[in-house]
Specification:
The protein is α+β, with helices and mostly antiparallel strands. 34% of the residues lie in helices and 31% in strands. The longest helix has 18 residues. It holds the Pfam family HSP33. It comes from Thioalkalivibrio sulfidiphilus (strain HL-EbGR7).
Protein backbone atom coordinates (compact mmCIF):
# COMPACT_ATOMS: atom_id res chain seq x y z
CA UNK A 1 0.00 0.00 0.00
CA UNK A 2 1.16 3.52 -0.78
CA UNK A 3 0.26 6.81 0.86
CA UNK A 4 -3.18 7.23 -0.62
CA UNK A 5 -6.61 8.67 0.09
CA UNK A 6 -9.60 6.95 -1.52
CA UNK A 7 -13.18 8.16 -1.66
CA UNK A 8 -16.08 5.74 -1.95
CA UNK A 9 -19.86 5.87 -2.21
CA UNK A 10 -22.52 3.41 -1.11
CA UNK A 11 -24.69 3.48 -4.21
CA UNK A 12 -28.43 4.22 -3.88
CA UNK A 13 -27.78 5.76 -0.44
CA UNK A 14 -26.71 9.15 0.92
CA UNK A 15 -23.56 7.70 2.49
CA UNK A 16 -20.09 8.67 1.32
CA UNK A 17 -16.79 7.60 2.78
CA UNK A 18 -13.06 8.12 2.71
CA UNK A 19 -10.11 5.90 3.60
CA UNK A 20 -6.53 7.05 4.07
CA UNK A 21 -3.32 5.11 4.61
CA UNK A 22 -0.04 6.83 5.52
CA UNK A 23 3.21 4.90 5.34
CA UNK A 24 6.20 6.85 3.95
CA UNK A 25 4.46 10.10 4.93
CA UNK A 26 4.17 8.93 8.53
CA UNK A 27 7.76 7.70 8.59
CA UNK A 28 9.01 11.02 7.21
CA UNK A 29 7.38 12.81 10.13
CA UNK A 30 8.68 10.33 12.73
CA UNK A 31 12.25 10.70 11.43
CA UNK A 32 12.30 14.27 12.71
CA UNK A 33 11.37 13.67 16.37
CA UNK A 34 11.38 10.73 18.78
CA UNK A 35 7.90 10.56 20.30
CA UNK A 36 6.82 8.31 23.18
CA UNK A 37 4.48 5.58 21.81
CA UNK A 38 1.30 7.10 23.27
CA UNK A 39 2.10 10.59 21.90
CA UNK A 40 3.22 9.08 18.58
CA UNK A 41 -0.07 7.25 18.13
CA UNK A 42 -2.12 10.35 18.99
CA UNK A 43 -0.18 12.34 16.42
CA UNK A 44 -0.63 9.63 13.77
CA UNK A 45 -4.37 9.51 14.39
CA UNK A 46 -4.58 13.30 14.11
CA UNK A 47 -2.59 13.27 10.88
CA UNK A 48 -4.95 10.70 9.35
CA UNK A 49 -7.92 12.75 10.56
CA UNK A 50 -6.87 16.01 8.88
CA UNK A 51 -6.09 14.14 5.65
CA UNK A 52 -9.64 12.76 5.71
CA UNK A 53 -11.34 16.01 6.74
CA UNK A 54 -9.49 18.18 4.23
CA UNK A 55 -10.71 15.89 1.46
CA UNK A 56 -14.34 16.62 2.36
CA UNK A 57 -13.99 20.26 1.26
CA UNK A 58 -12.79 21.79 -2.00
CA UNK A 59 -10.17 24.47 -1.39
CA UNK A 60 -6.57 25.45 -2.15
CA UNK A 61 -5.66 26.47 1.39
CA UNK A 62 -5.15 24.42 4.53
CA UNK A 63 -7.06 22.76 7.35
CA UNK A 64 -5.43 22.92 10.78
CA UNK A 65 -6.41 20.86 13.81
CA UNK A 66 -4.95 22.02 17.12
CA UNK A 67 -5.47 20.46 20.55
CA UNK A 68 -4.11 22.16 23.66
CA UNK A 69 -4.39 21.09 27.27
CA UNK A 70 -3.09 21.35 30.82
CA UNK A 71 -2.10 17.68 31.05
CA UNK A 72 0.98 15.66 30.06
CA UNK A 73 0.34 16.42 26.36
CA UNK A 74 0.05 20.20 26.08
CA UNK A 75 0.04 20.63 22.29
CA UNK A 76 -0.97 18.64 19.24
CA UNK A 77 -1.16 20.43 15.89
CA UNK A 78 -1.57 18.93 12.42
CA UNK A 79 -2.16 20.55 9.04
CA UNK A 80 -3.36 19.29 5.66
CA UNK A 81 -3.38 21.26 2.43
CA UNK A 82 -5.79 21.13 -0.45
CA UNK A 83 -2.96 19.58 -2.50
CA UNK A 84 -2.65 16.42 -0.42
CA UNK A 85 0.28 17.39 1.81
CA UNK A 86 0.34 17.01 5.59
CA UNK A 87 2.57 17.93 8.52
CA UNK A 88 2.27 17.89 12.29
CA UNK A 89 3.91 17.95 15.70
CA UNK A 90 3.17 17.23 19.35
CA UNK A 91 4.59 18.55 22.62
CA UNK A 92 4.52 16.78 25.98
CA UNK A 93 5.96 17.61 29.40
CA UNK A 94 5.79 14.41 31.47
CA UNK A 95 4.99 10.71 31.18
CA UNK A 96 1.83 10.30 29.12
CA UNK A 97 -0.65 7.62 30.28
CA UNK A 98 -2.39 5.32 27.84
CA UNK A 99 -5.83 6.33 29.08
CA UNK A 100 -8.45 8.61 27.58
CA UNK A 101 -8.04 12.18 26.34
CA UNK A 102 -8.73 13.67 29.78
CA UNK A 103 -5.80 11.74 31.25
CA UNK A 104 -3.54 12.74 28.36
CA UNK A 105 -4.51 16.39 27.78
CA UNK A 106 -6.16 17.36 31.07
CA UNK A 107 -8.50 20.31 30.68
CA UNK A 108 -8.23 20.87 26.94
CA UNK A 109 -9.80 22.44 23.92
CA UNK A 110 -9.85 21.64 20.22
CA UNK A 111 -9.56 24.26 17.49
CA UNK A 112 -10.37 23.58 13.84
CA UNK A 113 -9.21 26.25 11.38
CA UNK A 114 -9.96 26.35 7.66
CA UNK A 115 -7.74 28.79 5.79
CA UNK A 116 -8.95 29.05 2.17
CA UNK A 117 -5.78 30.94 1.20
CA UNK A 118 -5.38 33.84 -1.22
CA UNK A 119 -6.16 36.31 1.54
CA UNK A 120 -9.72 35.07 2.01
CA UNK A 121 -11.34 35.01 5.45
CA UNK A 122 -10.52 32.14 7.77
CA UNK A 123 -13.11 29.99 9.51
CA UNK A 124 -12.34 28.78 13.02
CA UNK A 125 -14.32 26.57 15.38
CA UNK A 126 -13.37 26.11 19.05
CA UNK A 127 -14.87 23.46 21.34
CA UNK A 128 -13.94 21.85 24.67
CA UNK A 129 -11.95 18.64 24.30
CA UNK A 130 -14.44 15.92 25.16
CA UNK A 131 -14.58 12.19 24.50
CA UNK A 132 -12.49 9.14 25.26
CA UNK A 133 -10.61 9.23 21.95
CA UNK A 134 -9.57 11.70 19.27
CA UNK A 135 -12.17 10.28 16.87
CA UNK A 136 -14.89 10.77 19.51
CA UNK A 137 -13.74 14.36 20.12
CA UNK A 138 -13.89 15.12 16.40
CA UNK A 139 -17.33 13.56 16.09
CA UNK A 140 -18.43 15.76 18.99
CA UNK A 141 -17.08 18.79 17.13
CA UNK A 142 -19.22 17.97 14.09
CA UNK A 143 -22.29 17.50 16.31
CA UNK A 144 -21.73 20.80 18.14
CA UNK A 145 -21.21 22.73 14.92
CA UNK A 146 -24.33 21.17 13.36
CA UNK A 147 -22.49 19.87 10.34
CA UNK A 148 -23.10 16.67 8.41
CA UNK A 149 -23.44 13.49 10.51
CA UNK A 150 -19.84 12.24 10.57
CA UNK A 151 -18.06 9.23 12.08
CA UNK A 152 -14.34 8.52 12.16
CA UNK A 153 -12.14 5.52 12.90
CA UNK A 154 -8.45 6.28 13.44
CA UNK A 155 -5.40 4.13 14.16
CA UNK A 156 -1.63 4.53 14.25
CA UNK A 157 1.48 2.66 15.35
CA UNK A 158 5.20 2.99 14.75
CA UNK A 159 4.88 2.01 11.09
CA UNK A 160 1.60 3.33 9.72
CA UNK A 161 -1.32 5.68 10.33
CA UNK A 162 -4.76 5.13 8.83
CA UNK A 163 -8.32 6.36 9.04
CA UNK A 164 -11.86 5.80 7.81
CA UNK A 165 -14.57 8.46 7.56
CA UNK A 166 -18.30 8.11 6.89
CA UNK A 167 -20.71 10.98 6.26
CA UNK A 168 -24.43 11.21 5.60
CA UNK A 169 -25.01 13.66 2.76
CA UNK A 170 -28.01 16.03 2.76
CA UNK A 171 -30.89 15.58 0.37
CA UNK A 172 -33.62 13.03 -0.18
CA UNK A 173 -32.78 9.96 1.88
CA UNK A 174 -33.44 6.99 -0.37
CA UNK A 175 -32.38 4.51 2.32
CA UNK A 176 -33.05 5.97 5.80
CA UNK A 177 -31.19 3.15 7.58
CA UNK A 178 -28.08 3.27 5.37
CA UNK A 179 -25.89 5.51 7.54
CA UNK A 180 -26.71 3.64 10.72
CA UNK A 181 -26.03 0.36 8.94
CA UNK A 182 -22.72 1.57 7.53
CA UNK A 183 -21.58 2.86 10.95
CA UNK A 184 -22.59 -0.36 12.72
CA UNK A 185 -20.52 -2.40 10.29
CA UNK A 186 -17.55 -0.03 10.55
CA UNK A 187 -17.66 -0.32 14.35
CA UNK A 188 -16.60 -3.97 13.95
CA UNK A 189 -13.30 -2.84 12.43
CA UNK A 190 -10.19 -3.59 14.47
CA UNK A 191 -7.22 -1.21 14.54
CA UNK A 192 -4.93 -3.75 12.88
CA UNK A 193 -7.40 -4.23 10.03
CA UNK A 194 -7.54 -0.48 9.48
CA UNK A 195 -3.75 -0.30 9.46
CA UNK A 196 -3.00 -3.37 7.37
CA UNK A 197 -5.84 -4.11 4.94
CA UNK A 198 -5.85 -2.61 1.41
CA UNK A 199 -8.88 -0.45 0.78
CA UNK A 200 -10.53 -2.97 -1.57
CA UNK A 201 -10.21 -5.75 1.01
CA UNK A 202 -11.38 -3.53 3.84
CA UNK A 203 -14.48 -2.34 1.98
CA UNK A 204 -15.34 -5.89 0.97
CA UNK A 205 -14.92 -7.01 4.58
CA UNK A 206 -17.35 -4.32 5.75
CA UNK A 207 -19.78 -3.81 2.86
CA UNK A 208 -19.83 -6.92 0.70
CA UNK A 209 -23.65 -6.82 0.78
CA UNK A 210 -23.70 -3.19 -0.39
CA UNK A 211 -23.09 -1.72 -3.84
CA UNK A 212 -19.84 0.18 -3.25
CA UNK A 213 -18.28 2.47 -5.83
CA UNK A 214 -14.58 3.06 -5.11
CA UNK A 215 -13.14 6.18 -6.74
CA UNK A 216 -9.55 6.65 -7.89
CA UNK A 217 -7.09 7.33 -5.13
CA UNK A 218 -5.11 10.54 -4.65
CA UNK A 219 -1.58 10.71 -3.19
CA UNK A 220 -0.78 12.07 0.26
CA UNK A 221 2.72 13.22 1.24
CA UNK A 222 4.65 14.96 4.00
CA UNK A 223 5.64 18.51 3.15
CA UNK A 224 6.56 21.46 5.29
CA UNK A 225 5.88 24.98 4.02
CA UNK A 226 8.79 26.60 5.82
CA UNK A 227 11.45 28.46 3.79
CA UNK A 228 14.33 30.86 4.31
CA UNK A 229 12.17 33.64 2.88
CA UNK A 230 9.42 33.02 5.46
CA UNK A 231 11.93 32.91 8.30
CA UNK A 232 13.43 36.18 7.05
CA UNK A 233 9.98 37.78 7.06
CA UNK A 234 9.45 36.54 10.61
CA UNK A 235 12.74 38.13 11.69
CA UNK A 236 11.81 41.42 10.03
CA UNK A 237 8.50 41.36 11.92
CA UNK A 238 10.44 40.71 15.13
CA UNK A 239 12.29 43.99 14.58
CA UNK A 240 15.89 45.10 14.13
CA UNK A 241 16.65 45.78 17.84
CA UNK A 242 15.53 42.30 18.91
CA UNK A 243 17.42 40.56 16.10
CA UNK A 244 20.55 42.62 16.79
CA UNK A 245 20.33 41.63 20.46
CA UNK A 246 20.28 37.94 19.54
CA UNK A 247 23.16 38.49 17.15
CA UNK A 248 25.22 40.21 19.86
CA UNK A 249 24.56 37.42 22.39
CA UNK A 250 24.89 34.42 20.08
CA UNK A 251 27.02 35.64 17.18
CA UNK A 252 24.32 34.46 14.75
CA UNK A 253 20.56 33.97 14.56
CA UNK A 254 19.40 30.37 14.26
CA UNK A 255 15.79 29.32 13.73
CA UNK A 256 14.59 25.73 13.63
CA UNK A 257 11.22 24.79 12.11
CA UNK A 258 9.23 22.87 14.70
CA UNK A 259 7.42 20.86 12.03
CA UNK A 260 10.31 19.53 9.94
CA UNK A 261 13.35 20.41 12.11
CA UNK A 262 14.99 22.29 9.24
CA UNK A 263 17.47 24.89 10.47
CA UNK A 264 18.00 28.42 9.11
CA UNK A 265 21.11 30.44 10.04
CA UNK A 266 21.65 34.18 9.63
CA UNK A 267 25.02 35.79 10.36
CA UNK A 268 25.76 39.51 10.73
CA UNK A 269 26.01 40.05 6.96
CA UNK A 270 22.73 38.21 6.38
CA UNK A 271 20.96 40.31 9.04
CA UNK A 272 22.28 43.55 7.57
CA UNK A 273 21.04 42.61 4.12
CA UNK A 274 17.74 41.41 5.59
CA UNK A 275 16.92 44.82 7.01
CA UNK A 276 18.54 47.05 4.39
CA UNK A 277 17.24 45.31 1.28
CA UNK A 278 14.04 43.82 2.70
CA UNK A 279 14.76 40.47 1.11
CA UNK A 280 16.26 37.41 2.83
CA UNK A 281 19.67 36.63 1.25
CA UNK A 282 20.74 33.25 0.01
CA UNK A 283 22.43 31.20 2.70
CA UNK A 284 22.75 27.90 4.42
CA UNK A 285 19.92 25.60 5.26
CA UNK A 286 20.76 22.74 7.58
CA UNK A 287 18.86 19.77 8.92
CA UNK A 288 19.62 18.59 12.43
Amino acid sequence: MTDTLNRFILETTNVRGEWVHLDATWQALLERYAYPPVVRDLLGQALAAVALLSATIKFDGSLILQVTGSGPVNLLVVQASGHGTVRGLARWQSEVPAGDLAAQFGDGRMVMTIDPGQGRERYQGIVPLEGASLSAALEGYFTRSEQLPTRLWLAADGQRAAGLLLQALPGEDRDPDAFHRAVTLADTLKDQELLELPVQTLLHRLYHEEDVRLLDGSPVSFRCGCSRERVGEMLRNLGRPEVDSILEDEGRVEVNCEFCNAGYRFDAVDVEQLFTEGEPPPGSRTRH
